[in-house]
Write a structure and sequence with these properties.
The complex is a heterodimer. By secondary structure, chain A is of the alpha/beta class. Chain A has five helices and nine strands. Classes of the chains: A alpha/beta, B alpha+beta.
Chain lengths: 194, 175
């Protein structure tokens, strides 16, 4: 059995098909193009999960766009020691001062990362700062953040595919699917040495 | 951005709360641990007989966060208290963080193996106040009748940088 087939088997349900995602990206691109008509927008993608969405969205926008990439460290602390503070692993490559900036996210759940990123980017004095996310999982929200462009509001399930990962895998799936619970239970058992 | 709160100096009642404080620190979200106590039930004499002390207050977000990784029976009780809190203090922004929410958070951060150790009774640590959380769960003890309070008092600020002297502390506060 090849590796990709193995990845598909770990998905219990396809939440969004490739076609549904493509149609939504086109719709978002058209809205963004209309809203920013006559201006130039800088798309800031947050690595790694938003990479496929960014690649598709920028091609669905028909006004001048600049793109930039950022990567922010994720929490991974243990029960006994602090993980320190969130860090910018990859910063912007160009100034966004006086630019219209659109943050491109794959998914918003707690809003903690995005909340940090917004505060950070506001400090760079953009002309405007808006948010576009493919997926919104409001059930998990801790920090309420107004989202300007939302692709899909999804239920409270652990999803992978189209950039979203579990353990760095499944990002290359062309759809968004719900990971079978036994997949992460198996991983946990391995971690626990069961 | 502000300095994060110091985790080791805060006497958390549950290991999941300590983990949440580390997550908030990581993302530079300021928090206070159980700073406020809200009366939610009075007896016929007007004395407060039940209060609610949300676990965290996030001042930058004006949000109270209550975590519960306890048994379903206690979750029901907490839901009831939360409903009462929202009735009495409709302007409060309170979010209840259930065990499933905490589990999802641990899964998101690749720390699912920690979940079992941090949830439920195994995650309990000794209360610094000697207040038994289950005191009002004892069978046979009935709560006094609910009456509408004549006027809602301001929440009592309860800074917990230092544990109060058990000999001088007030009535048990259930949370």
């Amino acid at each position: 059995m090849n590796e990709v087939a193995h990845l598909h088997e770990d998905v219990g349900e396809i939440l969004l098909t490739e076609e549904e995602i493509a149609a939504k990206v086109r719709e978002l691109g058209a809205r963004i193009s209309a809203d920013y008509a006559g201006r130039r927008v800088t798309l800031v993608s947050v690595l790694k999960g938003s990479l496929p969405f960014m690649a598709d969205l920028m091609r669905a926008i028909d006004i001048p766009v600049r793109i930039d990439l950022m990567e922010v460290s994720s929490y991974g602390g243990s029960a006994t020691e602090s993980s320190g503070l969130v860090r910018i692993l990859k910063d912007l490559s160009a100034s966004i001062a006086d630019e219209d900036v659109l943050i491109v996210e794959d998914i918003i759940d707690t809003g903690l990362t995005l909340n940090y990123l917004i505060r950070y980017l506001r400090g760079k004095a953009p002309a405007s700062l808006r948010i576009c996310t493919l997926l919104d999982k409001p059930a998990r929200r801790l920090v309420e953040i107004p989202v300007d462009y939302t692709g899909f509001t999804i239920p409270d399930q652990f999803v992978v595919g189209y950039g979203l990962d579990y353990g760095e895998l499944y990002r290359n799936l062309r759809y968004v699917g719900v990971l079978k619970p036994e997949v992460y239970s198996e991983v946990r058992a391995e971690v626990d040495g069961v | 951005m502000s300095e994060p709160a110091s985790v080791p100096s805060t006497p958390f009642a549950h290991a999941s709360e300590a983990e949440m404080s580390r997550i908030l620190d990581f993302y530079a979200v300021r928090w206070e641990y159980e700073p406020d106590t809200f009366p939610i039930l009075w007896n016929l004499d007007g004395d407060v007989v039940e209060s609610f002390s949300p676990d965290f207050y996030l001042p930058d977000l004006d949000l109270y966060l209550e975590m519960t990784t306890l048994r379903q029976r206690l979750v029901r009780k907490k839901n009831r208290k939360l409903r009462r809190l929202r009735e009495l203090y409709p302007d409060l922004n309170v979010k209840l963080f259930y065990a499933r929410d905490f589990r999802a958070l641990m899964l998101k951060y690749g720390k699912l193996a920690l979940f079992d150790g941090l949830s439920g009774s195994s995650g309990q640590v000794a209360s610094p106040y000697g207040v038994p959380e289950l005191a009002n769960e004892t069978p046979g003890i009935e709560l006094p009748a609910v009456i509408d309070p004549p006027a809602l008092p301001a929440p009592r600020r309860r800074r917990r940088a230092a544990a109060p002297d058990p000999a001088t502390k007030g009535p048990a506060i259930l949370s």
